[in-house]
Design brief:
Strands 1-2-3 form a three-stranded mixed beta sheet. About 55% of the residues lie in helices and about 10% in strands. The relative contact order is 0.08. The two termini are about 45 Å apart. It is built from seven helices and three strands. The longest helix is centred in the last third of the chain and has 27 residues.
Amino acid sequence: MNCSYLVHLLFLLSIPSISYGSTDKIDSSQTNIPSPTLRWASTGGGWRSQMACIGFANLFSKLDIMSKFSAISTTSGASWFSTQLFYSQQFYDRVVNADDSQALHDFVVQWMDAYKQMLVDTIDTSRNITAAYAEEVCNTRDLGDGPAVQIISDLCQTLVYFDGDWAECE
């Protein structure tokens, strides 16, 4: 396969779908036609999709349409992007308001380094937690046996493993 073709194919697969439409019925006697509803839908694709969505968000901002979307729908890798976009003001500001491609690139590299460091820290912390320690903290012996007790034990050990903060936001 031609590498140029592959790059173009990957680019096309990452293009979000933008829908124009309105749920309002237009009466022919109306003089004021409502403006179309703007929606953004992006599919999965892991890191490729997330990075493409970062670029599109910046582009949509530059085109002055980012604030005009009535809905954003994402799956998989695009959802990694949308979760950050919706719940991290810093991420939103740095992606949407980046002045140029270099500023956007620098932020993505900084963000990826921080993500990598969080994973390294989690792995280092987990190495200090032994299975015996987790079992001691999550003592379910008094609850008896059975699948429900096993699920409780597994969940407790997961909480201990992540020190209860795998979903902590900063």
